[in-house]
Design brief:
With 394 residues, the chain is an alpha/beta fold. The protein contains 17 helices and 13 strands.
Length: 394
């Protein structure tokens, strides 16, 4: 069992809020984490994709009132958004009776209905925690390359071979397209959405060019925006915004787009092993996305992420706005001898970040020119979030 960083965060939120929503894509490990938490306290688990469990909630208020002394775990809660009004009433009633925290743990594979419904009904009563696939702090330190190639979904990362991992990811993509997305979001032809997802993988880490993608798909720009919103809401794609800084220069306004799991990037492009990835033009963009996802997975919730680019070519791959408003600048390079471009130095002159790093494929940490530190991914992730804490059950 791999300890997850977010376990202690979820426990802390349960001690503070009546309800906690644990959000993440399917197969990222939400149910496993919930089961570990359930081992620590009296709990009842309901899978809302199971007809028998849904039947128990035919009179939800009556059933849940009978378990007010337990943590109620509701899996795939976006399937029954009508529950949120009931939960609100139970939470408010419980508060008046002294039950102020730790009532409900809601697991959701999408943020679409879940965020909307809970935002309407449970404001001030719920906290959100996002659980993505495994990151470099959770995987063994010497397995970083495997994590990059296979991605962080546990069944993919832990597969017996690259071949078995690739088969798992192919079926994961197919299941999402043919079963999960039609149930979770608006109706989109599976083959069209696959082509769109694959196009995003081809331009991994690039600026969003909706017009170009629209021409490739034979649709209009609004349709592309709708498809992108869907994959972002399903926590499968990240839309990294540009930093809006008052620097007196013309800034790029388009977001950068990343397929969030590197293993999914590689499978969409038909790259099943290390050699295939290294021989493909996407290798650099895939590594950049991998680094960004790992750093943001490790970073505290208060950290805001963006990138910086001017029309003149000044650029920083990742800008982290730390608590207190101070900036960290992160440049990302694949290889063991990272070199900084002039654009990075010009961008640092514009933003004057408190700290500057270049993340590369090695592990040694050393000083480069002008206060820039070369650093390995694991060490920078550790600086941001610290190592995962093991639970007694693990």
């Amino acid at each position: 069992m791999i300890p997850r960083q977010k376990t202690e965060t979820v426990l802390a939120r349960l001690n503070q809020f009546p309800a906690v929503a644990l959000l993440g894509p399917r197969q990222a490990g939400k149910t496993t984490l919930a089961e570990q938490i359930a081992d620590r306290r009296p709990s009842v688990y309901l899978d809302l994709e199971d007809p028998a469990d849904r039947e128990k909630l035919a009179d939800a208020a009556l059933y849940l009132s009978g378990h007010e002394d337990k943590l109620v775990i509701l899996d795939e809660v976006q399937r029954t958004p009508e529950l949120f009004q009931t939960l609100r009433g139970l939470i408010d009633k419980g508060r008046r009776g002294g039950l102020k925290a730790g009532r409900f743990l809601l697991l959701g594979s999408a943020s679409i209905d879940l965020l909307r419904q809970s935002g309407e009904s449970l404001a001030g009563r719920i906290a959100y925690v996002e659980l993505g696939p495994l990151n470099v702090l959770e995987a063994n330190g010497d397995k970083r390359e495997r994590l990059w190639i296979r991605g962080g979904f546990p069944d993919s990362f832990l597969a017996e071979s690259d071949k078995e991992s690739a088969i798992w990811r192919k079926n994961f993509i197919r299941t999402y397209l043919e079963r999960d997305i039609p149930q979770l979001g608006p109706r989109v032809p599976a083959e069209t959405l696959r082509r769109f997802w694959t196009m995003l993988a081809h331009v991994q880490s690039g600026l969003l060019n909706a017009a170009q993608i629209a021409r490739g798909l034979g649709v209009d720009g609004k349709t592309v925006s709708r498809y992108l919103d869907l994959l972002v809401d399903l926590l499968l794609v990240r839309r990294l915004p540009p930093l809006h800084a008052n620097v007196g220069k013309r800034l790029v306004k388009s977001p950068k787009v990343y397929v969030r799991d590197s293993g999914i990037v590689h499978t969409l492009l038909g790259l099943d092993d290390h050699e295939a990835v290294l021989g493909h033009p996407v290798a650099g963009g895939s590594w950049e996305g991998f680094v960004i996802e790992n750093l943001l997975s490790a970073a505290p919730e208060q950290v805001n992420a963006s990138f910086y680019r001017t029309a003149a070519g000044a650029e920083i791959d990742l800008v982290l706005e730390m608590p207190g408003g101070k900036l960290w600048a992160v440049e990302i390079k694949r290889g063991l001898t990272p070199k900084l471009d002039k654009g990075f130095h010009h961008a640092r002159e514009d933003l004057k970040p408190e700290r500057s790093f270049i993340v590369y494929s090695g592990e040694e940490r050393y000083q480069k020119a002008d206060g820039v530190e070369a650093i390995g991914l694991r060490e920078l992730a550790s600086m941001l979030g610290g190592p995962p804490k093991s639970s007694p059950q693990q």
